[in-house]
Design brief:
Blueprint lengths: L1 E4 L4 H12 L4 E5 L15 E4 L5 H10 L4 E4 L13 H22 L3 E7 L10 E3 L12 H20 L2 E7 L1 E3 L12 H10 L17 E2 L1 E3 H13 L7 E4 L5 E2 H11 L17 E3 L2 H7 L7 H13 L5
Parallel strand pairs: 1-2, 1-4, 2-3, 4-5, 5-7, 6-13, 7-11, 8-10
Antiparallel strand pairs: 9-12
Length: 316
């Protein structure tokens, strides 16, 4: 069985479905009450309640199930704790990763896939493809990429010393069913909800003003989940770090056009920058060559699928 921490969450639930479709059984670990999400009702997955920062609750999962692989998506981030204990929250996030590797060693797990982020490339100013061997800026820009860079470095050390294969997956901007609303970093989910509801987009929850030309590697969550499943299941991987994304830059204007094609009544405009930022995207050559992954959803297909899911009464 594959343990997916955070398996009932946004990317986690789609990873579980992809693993199920590949013939694998999964255990979903959640801090909240262990109830299978409605959109996984047809997937025979087991639920376990526990916290990756609590070693005993992790070990209990292994006593009840034979775990052969782990996809670690449940990382307690410092900004989500409302008690102003930033140091304690960061420690719990690191404890969660270390505990996951600890039980992997105890259980004889062959491979642990750990979610990292496209945000580790923050501060790279050149346009074009972002490859895994690109030197990363080490200054602090935001809690998420800072934490992920630390965990990537620890993953390399622990893999070398423990013999466990630890794979870091640098996940791109991801949107689709079950996604965050608002996503603070890019407007695509808010735009999709507005198109489905035939309303004006509320972009007030974004960390920064979005512009029409702004772009990023935007990947539909069903593709993201499938890529993570492939990184867990592919028999041999030649690298320890993989970009997970669409391999192309998608602008906010392109997202709006795709949503308008799906919902002709949807109209919205974003301001233009005086000087557009360089277009960047993830180089996904490694992922494609080692796992055979190619995205199934372009922007138009993603927009149509997401709007249809929202109109069916989901995500409200």
């Amino acid at each position: 069985m594959i343990l997916v921490t955070g398996g009932a969450g946004f990317i986690g639930s789609h990873t579980v479905r992809a693993l199920h479709e590949a013939g694998e059984q999964c255990v979903l670990l959640q801090r909240r009450a262990p109830v299978l999400p409605p959109h996984l009702a047809d997937v025979p997955a087991a639920m376990a309640r526990g916290d990756v920062a609590d070693l005993d609750s992790l070990r209990a999962v292994g006593r009840r199930n034979t775990i052969t692989g782990i996809v670690h998506l449940a990382i307690t981030p410092p900004w989500s704790v409302g008690d102003d204990d930033e140091i304690g929250a960061a420690g719990r996030a690191l404890d969660g990763f270390l505990n996951t590797v600890r039980v992997a060693k105890e259980w004889g797990v062959r491979r642990v896939v750990v979610a990292s982020t496209i945000g580790v490339y923050g501060g790279v100013t050149a346009g074009g493809a972002l490859g895994e061997d690109l030197p990363l800026p080490m200054r602090h820009l935001h809690a998420i990429p800072t934490l992920k860079k630390i965990i990537e470095l620890l993953a390399g050390q622990l893999a070398a010393e423990s013999g466990i294969e630890i794979v870091s997956a640098r996940v791109s901007g991801t949107w689709g069913p079950g996604g965050h609303l608002p996503d603070p970093f890019f407007p695509a989910p808010s735009l999709a909800h507005a198109a489905a509801g035939r309303t004006t987009p509320d972009l007030s929850g974004l960390a920064h003003q979005p512009y029409a030309e702004d772009s990023l590697d935007l990947c539909y969550v069903k593709d993201t989940g499938r890529a993570l499943a492939l990184l867990q299941l592919t028999p041999r991987l030649r690298h320890t770090t993989y970009n997970v994304g669409s391999g192309r830059a998608t602008s906010n204007a392109e997202v709006i056009a795709a949503l308008a094609a799906t919902e002709p009544g949807f109209r919205t405009e974003l301001p233009s920058r005086d000087t557009p930022a360089p277009r960047q995207w993830l180089d996904t050559s490694r992922l494609r060559e080692d796992t055979g992954f190619t995205p199934k959803y372009d922007t138009a297909a993603a927009a149509a699928d997401y709007v249809a899911w929202l109109r069916a009464g989901n995500g409200r």
